[in-house]
Design the sequence.
């Protein structure tokens, strides 16, 4: 937690209060902060800044001298279409994509997505994972997350409307590498949409359908990475 | 597991056997492979290739027609000096760095490394995590892993001998970004050594000592990432 994000209703004039148990615990036990200390805070959907601790109670912390003058970092001009992964890795993937600044996330069904993944109670907790990601990445603007339980209608009816310039699909068995693809693009712009499979990747039918709708298959070399690692390796190109 | 790596003693002429319980379970229950099916295999420290299943017993699988003609992908010309992280994330970090092809890994003490981390039983299981990483990344050559429990003597006496060209240390509060650093380097070579902190990063003293021994501090933008995410984002530059 590199900043503490509070909803707008927790602010009043130049004071604010922390009443989320995880955040209160973080201030007390991880930061070990005391009355008079300055905290890095932010307003969800608003600015970043600082505030000073006025009072620490068992379940809430009162802040004063709230200063919110720093605009959050720009979002990446990027939509990530991710095959819904195992619930175990969903939390970290949402956190990481949020911390990286992805603007739009589409969780889509795929052949290798087990049906049970769509029943996972973790899908009800996406807001929580987004908050963790924002507090990690020091941002206040949540990504838009959409669930698409049907692959074919999504690709055929919706996908192309999401692409503002180029689109790619990560595929270890593609003929072209991501860097070859980028060298061919004379605009030097990064793609605005990236499709990434879950464990086991996309099947040939899915690659063909995505390719038919404007997504160029690209690989990142002979090494096959875990979904989490692949997401960070690929999206790192937008940061660096 | 994108290939099954076996130690040299499991091979004999053009046959081989799988007798590791995790690997046997993977073939039976994840791949659902049967007698006559071809598996992607490799010899630890040797080549990659294929073999055909001859027989499946409760605790071992016999292979024939072993063909090991594919050389493993080149290692990255890279040493990663990583502040020893929490045991919980150590496994994934070792797996990912191995899958990415890092040649040398140094786990070093840092101010924010808790003493208890050095007592973790997971440090006895690094070979297991390396094997997982190799089988994920489809490689056969393990990275060299060194433990350095004392930060100052390591930096002062050993670090410079590990640097063959440039070295950097990842630091969110550095003045220069990684991409600015790369643009300044007229050789266009990537650094051969990267230092990455654990949760909470390096303290100023550590940054100063690393800088005094040839490591340029660089940031990757305003967003602060989890150690795992930062490792993959940074090292992705060597893949892409």
Sequence:
């Amino acid at each position: 937690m590199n900043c503490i994000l509070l909803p707008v209703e927790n602010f009043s004039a130049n004071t604010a209060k922390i009443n989320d148990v995880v955040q209160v615990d973080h201030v007390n036990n991880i930061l070990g902060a005391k009355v008079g200390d300055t905290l890095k805070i932010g307003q969800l959907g608003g600015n970043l800044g600082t505030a000073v601790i006025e009072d620490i109670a068992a379940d809430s912390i009162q802040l004063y001298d709230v200063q919110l003058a720093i605009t959050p970092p720009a979002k990446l001009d990027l939509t990530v279409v991710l095959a819904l992964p195992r619930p175990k890795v969903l939390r970290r993937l949402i956190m990481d994509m949020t911390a990286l600044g992805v603007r739009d996330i589409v969780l889509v069904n795929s052949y290798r997505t087990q049906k049970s993944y769509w029943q996972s109670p973790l899908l009800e907790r996406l807001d929580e994972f987004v908050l963790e990601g924002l507090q990690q990445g020091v941002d206040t603007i949540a990504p838009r997350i959409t669930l698409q339980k049907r692959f074919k209608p999504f690709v055929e009816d919706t996908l192309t409307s999401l692409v503002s310039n180029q689109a790619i699909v990560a595929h270890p068995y593609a003929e072209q590498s991501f860097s070859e693809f980028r060298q061919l693009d004379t605009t030097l712009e990064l793609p605005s949409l990236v499709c990434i499979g879950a464990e086991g990747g996309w099947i040939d039918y899915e690659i063909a359908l995505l390719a038919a709708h404007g997504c160029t298959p690209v690989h990142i070399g002979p090494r096959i990475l875990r979904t989490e690692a692949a997401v960070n390796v690929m999206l790192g190109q937008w940061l660096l």
Summary: Chain B is about 30% helix and 30% strand. The helical segments of chain B are 21-30, 87-100, 126-137, 151-162, 178-184, 204-212, 227-239.
